[in-house]
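Record 1 of the preview.
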Amino acid sequence: MKIKKIIQFLEGNIKMLGDEFDLIPQHQREQVMYRSEICKYECMQYGYCIECGCSLPGKLYVKESCNDGKKFPDLMNKSDWEEFKIKNNIIIK
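->
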């Protein structure tokens, strides 16, 4: 389990760095913003995920959801994300 957390830490922080240089696709960027909004009153205030204990904001960039989809799903491809936004009335500005 520790290996998985290390890999997710690296994944999240590398993608977060990529985001700073506009290297991740817009649909992934939107999903990170969505996750941040969902978690703003809990995890974001603490600086770590209350489900898994991983540090934020890097954890927001990890493909796999740590909450089994209860709060938000795994990161999706562009078409699935667009469909998810429509079904759930999500508007990203």
